[in-house]
Amino acid sequence: MVAEADLHLHGDNHNHNNHSHGHNDEDSSSRALIFTYGTLKRGFSNHPLLQDLIRTGDASFVGTYRTALTYPLVTGPYRVPFLLNIPGSGHHVRGELYSVSTRGLDRMDELEGTTRAHYERLPIKLIPVATIDDDDDDGKEEENDGGGGDVASRGITCAEAYYAHGNYAGELWKKNEKRGLVCYGEKEARGYVKRKDRPQHLTFLDHIRSFISSPSH
């Protein structure tokens, strides 16, 4: 997710209040729950955006979650991660859940290029990882049971995630030979190239089209 753009944080971070509530008095009921599965997670290249939002009270960490249904999680050009809106395929994807204000959501939408057909912010159902048995999701190949399994008793959380745009998601799944990841970790991120270090004469969608049309190794 979220790796399509490199962070260009505002230069006034040193003025931000370090308290988690910062200066955002927005009612918690109007905040969105956003599931991050890629470079917005802690330890990855775009996480400074969330750190910035946390400092201003525009975001807070909720916990570690996984998808209730199975979804394909793949990498594309420059090891950019993409969650594909194809429930029933792939794995139960692990990631981090954040509560985000309207202002924070605007910044995340900009990063993800939602108005430029890069990613789509759509609903997703999640389960807290703490409620999952140790042997339930150990990273091994999972049986595809339609993606649901017995999740009713585990407590479903309704959130949103940034999926690869539907204009290219199906082709990206085929390009990855319909093999998905459980989690975007250090190994999967190896070789990731920040946007500023990519060829600047090509757009994000140009990179996608080039990746999809390139010969498979």
From TrEMBL:
Region (Disordered), start-end ranges: 7-28, 132-152
> Per UniProt, what is one Pfam family of this protein?
GGACT
Q: Where is the signal peptide?
A: none
Q: Where is the composition biased (Acidic residues)?
A: 132-145
Record's function text: Putative gamma-glutamylcyclotransferase.
Entries under PANTHER family matching the protein: GAMMA-GLUTAMYLAMINECYCLOTRANSFERASE, TROPONIN C-AKIN-1 PROTEIN
Stated name of the protein: Gamma-glutamylcyclotransferase family protein
